[in-house]
Amino acid sequence: MGNVRRSWPLIVAILLAALTLAAAWPGIAMYDTVAQFGQVLSGQYDDWHPPAMARLWAGLHRAVGGAAQPMLVVQVMLYWLGLGLIAGALARADRRKAAFAVLACGVLPVFLVWQIAVLKDAQMLGAMLAGVGLMAWWRFDGRRVPWWGWALAALCFGYATLVRANAVFAVAPLVAMLVATRWRMRAALGGAMVLATLAAMPIVNQSIFGAEESGVRTTQPRYDLAGIAVRVADPTATRLGAAQVAALKRGHCVKPFFWDPLGDGACADAEAPLNDLTAGQLYATLAEAIMHHPFAYSAHRLAHLNSTERWLVPTGWPDAWPPDVAEGNAIGLANPGRPAAWLVNETAPLGETPLAWPIVWLALAMVTAIVALRRPRSPLRDLALALLVSGLALEASFAAISIASDLRYHLWPMMAAALASVLVLADGAPSKRAVQLGGAALAFVVVSAVASRIILPPAPDTYAGMLAY
Question: TM segments (predicted)?
Fold first, then answer.
């Protein structure tokens, strides 16, 4: 009977998965969704979007049919499986309140609403949670993870790595924290995994998954070179001339929010001198430009980091919430049903609250990490620390590798911070001083973010408006 009582989180997670699928069906198709499903139907793949996800989608489409529905099932089941395993492991360890809190994290609209949208970000979040859930299932009661448990977790973490180009910055630190106990070994292992993955990913995408090279690897250095060029008097190191820089400035082509203006029209023409450079040559040029203009590069990256963290920005900063209708298409991706549209519309105002500001979750993660580092080792503390290192590492990567400010890019770090906070609290109450200092740090972030939204003019509410903003 005791075992039955302790299995309630898994039962609840299964019910929540069924409810999520019923409410979300057939899923929300955004721009990326349409592009990937188009590749599924055509059988022609490129590496702009993760070909591993498109290949899986193609296999499921052939096997069971449907449009977005098969991938919706994959991400929702992974999402609730992971949370259910973590909560179940906590319940078995007599941490019932913590088990309930983990499931409550999954119900938070800022996470749940993105499970309705069939996207690589939601796929990554689900795969990461499933892998972590497998680790928690055995480790929370002191058992060794069996080899097949590690194999399943490796499959989850491997898929997470393949479905987002920057996921390695979260996966590698997490795996290093799970398999090593000394910090030097963790740093060495994590660093080696990052370098090996970055080197292998183009080969995997093109040779194994048969994806054509799309030029996506050139977007980061081109964005950064333009960002440097418009901030310096002599742009020679960027390989852009005075006429091109004048055009970039005239067209307001460099935006902290995203790189998109540089992809079209006069802005793309202004970067024409970079067209014939390979990704390697572009990164070499960027390295030289950074050496010559470190302050301009720092100003450019900090402006984007502030934007993607949604800190000192105006109200209405776009792309915090998914849309309630599908991106226009003629390939069978339908509009979401009434329950999904209702959920999106009713929860959308939360996009203007601290729940949807990654900077707040980043502050929470840093405070929680300080508390965890002061604790003796335990299964809960160790997994919490692994989650925090993973989330913080991914957030840190945005300082150098990021070209857009969509909230969905931060789903894993935000969820990792939420779950780690639950685990640290379940492991023991923090000291009064930790609560005071942590509360002060969070208050500073929230108050400054609120002040910027009061002072600054509202952001445009359309994509075209942001292009001209």
Answer: 72-91, 98-119, 147-180, 187-204, 355-373, 385-405, 411-430, 437-456
Q: Nearest CA to 165 among 88, 51, 265? A: 51
Examine residue 413 and state whether it is found in any structural domain, yes or no.
yes
Q: For the purposes of burial, counting CB atoms within 10 Å of the CB of 176, is it exposed (0-12), middle (13-18) or buried (19 or more)?
A: buried
Amino acid sitting at position 437: L
Distance CA 422, CA 98 (A): 6
Q: List the domain range (segments joined by +) for residue 243.
A: 216-293
- The letter for the amino acid at 193 is M
In this structure, the answer to whether residues 207 and 224 fall within a common structural domain is: no
252 assigned to some structural domain = yes
Q: Which helix (H) or strand (E) holds 45?
A: strand 45-46
User: pLDDT per residue over 25-35, tens digit each?
Assistant: 999 999 999 99
Alpha carbon 224 to chain centroid, angstroms: 21
Q: Which long-range contacts (CB under 8 A, 24 or more apart) does 34-41 make?
A: 34/326, 34/327, 34/329, 34/331, 34/333, 37/67, 37/68, 37/329, 37/331, 37/332, 37/333, 38/329, 38/331, 41/331
d(CA 57, CA 289): 41
Helix (H, G, I), strand (E, B) or coil at 196: helix
Could you report the per-residue pLDDT of 310-362, keeping only the tens digit for each? Answer: 999 999 999 999 999 999 999 999 999 999 999 999 999 999 999 999 999 99
Separation of alpha carbons 15 and 13, rounded Å: 5
Which residue type sits at 365?
A
DSSP string, 235-271: -GGGT--HHHHHHHHHTT---SSBSGGGGSHHHHHHT
Using the 3D structure, point to which of 293, 312, 342 is the last residue of a domain.
Answer: 293
- The number of distinct structural domains making up the chain is 2
Cα-Cα-Cα-Cα torsion 304, 310, 312, 313, nearest 10 degrees, comes to 90
The pTM of the full predicted model, rounded to 2 decimals, is: 0.95
d(CA 324, CA 321): 9
Core vs surface per residue 78-101: b (16+ CB within 10 A) or e? bbbbbbbbbbbbbbbbebbebbbb
**How far apart are alpha carbons 34 and 330 in whole angstroms?**
9
Q: Are 123 and 75 in contact (CB under 8 A)?
A: yes
Q: Can you tell me the distance from the alpha carbon of 72 to that of 18, in angstroms, rounded to the nearest whole number?
A: 12
Low-confidence ranges of the chain (pLDDT < 70): 1-6
Do 105 and 238 lie in one domain? The reply is: no
Q: How far is 229 from 242, CA to CA, in rounded Å?
A: 9
